[in-house]
Amino acid sequence: MRKNGIRRTNKRCMVKDRKEMTEEMRDKKKAGNGGIVRRLLAGAVLVGCLSALGPVEALAAKRPYAYGTSGEDEEAYGPALAGNAASTGTGIAGISGADGIAAASALDASTGSGPNQIVEDNAEAAAKRAALADNTLEFSEIAGRIENYNVSFRNTKSTTLGKLINQGVISELTEEARDLTKEADDLKEDEMDEEDKALYESYRLTANELRKKAADIRHTETDSLETSLRQSRNSLIKMVQNQYIAYEKAKYSLNAARKSEAACENDLSAAQTKQSAGLASEADVLEARNKLLAAQKKTMSAESQLSGAKNKILISLGWDVDADVEITDIPAPDMSLIASIDLAADTQTAITSNYSLITTRKGSSKTTAAKTQKNRAVTASKTMITSSMNTLYAAVVSKQQAYDAAQDAWAKAQNDWNSAQIKYRGGLSGRSEYLSAEAAYENALASEKSAELDLISAMQTYDWAVAGLIANG
Fold first, then answer.
1. For residue 450, which phi and psi values (nearest 5 degrees)?
2. Same domain (yes/no): 196, 82
3. Which of 180, 225, 251, 423 lies 20 to 30 Å (CA to CA) from residue 147?
4. Count of the separate structural domains present in the chain
5. Are 346 and 227 contained in the same domain?
6. Are 254 and 442 in contact (CB under 8 A)?
């Protein structure tokens, strides 16, 4: 009782001191109220400057599901997505390249248990950084290059993480506002005039409003931002993978076109020589010339396709368009993975992970009619995804069969080419037959590689559908 009495006496003294303030001080107090309220309301915007104090990537380590791994809510976030398929064996094509994502993650943080662990992590991060920064591009490095060098993604990532940091500071300011609320409630019990009570009541109301706003942002907007960032990253990876496949197709097509052009040039020269000797007609020469022109046109088209595909890759992955970058071949597909596909399980995962369906599920449905419409939309989307997964699986099987046939044709072309070389070296055939056989071999190789890349593309498309990237609607 005595302690409480002392407390009440001290508070009365404080109140008495406040009542002795001059009118000027009271005006300043009123102005201060407005300043505090404005400070609280503007906190979400002003705190964006805090991102300059440290790398925004630090937040990413706390939110792994924004970077390709699942959150606690599978229904909302889906399974471990791009970046984990290759390392966990969950995908049939290793959709984003585990090495690339691992490199990006390692660059963001080194969180060992001691100094030695930190040194090891830093060394590993440096090695991965060096691999990404060299001028040799591997298919598995696409994800890492997107994370670290794609201008569009880095801007999106910076903006998104900035918003997430802002939300964290809003939460901190709300905690501060909650303290003000408690103080206002304590002082409200003492002998204050109506003006003071109104002043401190406004603090309490403002704090409560900010607290509700921060909670709403934390539970809704944050999830949407993270999902959007993940979708943006994965969409870019998928796009560059398609560009990479187009580049490799064009490369083999160009080799075949050049060999065909060389054979046509030789045929034209031979036709002209025969015409001079009276052994060929003008029509024969004209036919040979037209074949050469067609071959040259095909070569120029292949050169244009190759150059265009390479430029797109370089720009997308942060290189200058004229950078001297070696783009290595895509590894051959693992055929055993196709046999291990579980279509039913993959379809369920695709439904859970689908970005469009996630958005639909999170849509507002406060009225009965809205809920009914939302349920219908969800059901329709599930049906569409199931149908699409069946189609994509059928495409994988079809491309596998086409690839098998192309390999058989290429094996025959290899035998023919080996025989042609032996005959030519033994003087049993002329240069025309030799060049024609070489062109046939290169065209068979281009067809075999095209079929292989078509299969890889089908596997990639299937994997990305499982990971949530599939047209919905």
1. -65, -40
2. yes
3. 251
4. 2
5. no
6. no
CB neighbourhood size of 418 (10 A): 12
pLDDT digits (tens, 9 = 90+) for 347-384: 999 999 998 888 888 777 778 888 888 889 899 999 99
- Given 236, 263, 289, the domain boundary residue is 236
**Co-location of 357 and 229 in the same domain:** no
| Overall pTM surpassing 0.70 (yes/no) | no
- Hunting for tokens 């025959």 — which residue is that? 412
pLDDT-wise least confident of 94-98, 109-113, 198-202: 109-113
Contact 165, 63 (CB under 8 A): no
Residue 454 within any structural domain of the chain: yes
Burial annotation 168-200 (CB, 10 A radius, 16+ → b, else e): bbbbebbeebeebbeebeebeeeebeeebeebb
- Tokens standing for residue 422: 């032996």
CA nearest neighbour of 393 among 352, 350, 355? 350
Same domain, 229 and 356: no
What does each C-alpha distance from 236 to 143, 151, 367, 464, 469 come to in angstroms? 9, 11, 37, 12, 11
Tokens of 272: 């002209």
Integer Cα distance of 396 and 338 in angstroms: 8
Q: Which domain holds residue 124?
A: 33-64+74-236
